[in-house]
User: Fold this.
Amino acid sequence: MTPPNQATARPADPVPEATSQTVAARAEAEDGEAGDPDPSQAPSAARDDGNGGYGEGDEAAAPYAPLILDERWAEDIITPQLSQLRDAFAAQGVILEPDREIALALSNDAHVADVNATFRKRIGPTNVLSFPAAAAPTAAHPGSETQPLGDLILAFETVEREACERRITVRNHTLHLIVHGTLHLLGHDHADEAQAQAMETLEVAILQRLGLPSPYDEHGAPAGDP
Assistant:
């Protein structure tokens, strides 16, 4: 099931837990537009105020709190499926607790490259980075009924390029990366072949629940995807 071109086809490793409260993205409002992301701010503390993302209290994407940090991310790319992910995970015995929230930063290569260099000492962007939150509740949502499970950051150009190379839609590839990153936040990994096989099997089952084909066919692209 392992896809070809593994360096780009398999999503990135999770970032160590210790960095989860000090990294990722905030949309800085400037003349009504989202500015450059600030990698010193955590997206879990940066709920959008109408300048390029989703507003406070939006339940449609729960448990995800999407934040659009690059205007090339169209709001309808993934929104219809986000609300279905909790049930898709649950069908495979993976529980996303209702009081935990995942900050989903839809960003770009430059931002992800900065974060990658700062916290993973690796050069260049990757498709997705995951930042598990600390085990104890943090001050990210003081007084809130929800507490952060962690943060996911996606790089638009890399996601778009990989989707094109693998002959799949940006939407399908994005959803796969969100599923993969979420599993990392829940403690899954692919440090060895056995772990990778188990994680890929789980990803495929969750995506099939959403009506999506496997991203791990022999060509590295979902069969039948336009």
